[in-house]
């Protein structure tokens, strides 16, 4: 995972200091891209131990169309707690936009089901896109994430904003546009999550895996993560682990946690960092 360390080094060396919504302050660059060949192993960061359990449950939760943290909490995942209302609601975040985008005629659009059908029937299409960015439900400025969620708006606007699939030579690739990226805490989750999603979609479409391409808008290191980033840069990455997915599953909505197993994950110890809210 030298690609990830290169991003970190790039932000440390070229980042500009900016104030931000959370009041923490960041070093930030605008525009960056990484590519991961998914045939060369699973791109999970090895220079700190990453909690894959949280990543898998979060992805299954998105795919269920769920936007309440109850499912995550039942499975011991607390990464979304700080933004949810007392009832656990986050407003119409990823799950809602992916599975039930509100159409003007009152119907809802299942972008995931539609994109899979399109990959199967029109693999040459250049329109294989899923968007989480829905201006009608963006949070209102000046309100906290919890206040927005309580008012039926998104607690946070989607960070992983839009993704596009592409089929070439029987291989499925995916490119993500991430408008805002917390390089130390969020990005290791985002890389693994989209790599896994690409593998799952490839399996249900009977395609081999190609690349995951990760394109960034504002990629930043929070000022209270700089020491942790330096620690990680002194570590030597290990070879990528392997992700095994139960090959029987042919329906994107039928995966469960036990269908995934990560093999040969060798990593350096976990590094703690405070999350900016
Ligand atoms: N500032 C910020 N960064 C993010 O990455 C982020 C947000 N906010 N808000 C919405 C979601 C929530 N995400 C999160 C939230 C917490 C962790 C976190 O605390 N990770 C720890 C513990 C992992 C665990 O409990 O499984 C880590 O060391 O990776 C990671 C991603 C990603 N997103
Ligand atoms: O999947 C995610 C979700 C969130 N983030 C980070 C990026 C930013 O640091 C914050 C969101 O704050 P905004 O002010 O809305 O940009 O969360 C991430 O890296 N990955």
TrEMBL record:
UniProt xrefs under SUPFAM superfamilies: Thymidylate synthase/dCMP hydroxymethylase (SSF55831)
EC number: 2.1.1.45
Keyword annotations of the record: Cytoplasm, Methyltransferase, Nucleotide biosynthesis, Transferase
Alphabetical list of InterPro entries matching this protein: Thymidate_synth/dCMP_Mease, Thymidate_synth/dCMP_Mease_dom, Thymidate_synth/dCMP_Mease_sf, Thymidylate_synthase
This protein's record includes keyword Glycosyltransferase: no
Family label: Belongs to the thymidylate synthase family. Bacterial-type ThyA subfamily.
Any Pfam family the entry gives: Thymidylat_synt
Quaternary structure and partners: Homodimer.
Chain's role: Catalyzes the reductive methylation of 2'-deoxyuridine-5'-monophosphate (dUMP) to 2'-deoxythymidine-5'-monophosphate (dTMP) while utilizing 5,10-methylenetetrahydrofolate (mTHF) as the methyl donor and reductant in the reaction, yielding dihydrofolate (DHF) as a by-product. This enzymatic reaction provides an intracellular de novo source of dTMP, an essential precursor for DNA biosynthesis.
Ranges where the Thymidylate synthase/dCMP hydroxymethylase domain occurs: 2-277
Subcellular location per the Swiss-Prot or TrEMBL entry: Cytoplasm
Species per Swiss-Prot/TrEMBL record: Idiomarina tyrosinivorans
Recorded superkingdom: Bacteria
Binding site residues for dUMP: 21, 126-127, 179-182, 190, 220-222
Annotated metabolic or biological route of this protein: Pyrimidine metabolism; dTTP biosynthesis
Protein name: Thymidylate synthase
Binding positions ((6R)-5,10-methylene-5,6,7,8-tetrahydrofolate): 51, 182, 276
GO-annotated cellular components: cytosol
Keyword match Thylakoid: no
GO MF entry, a single one: thymidylate synthase activity
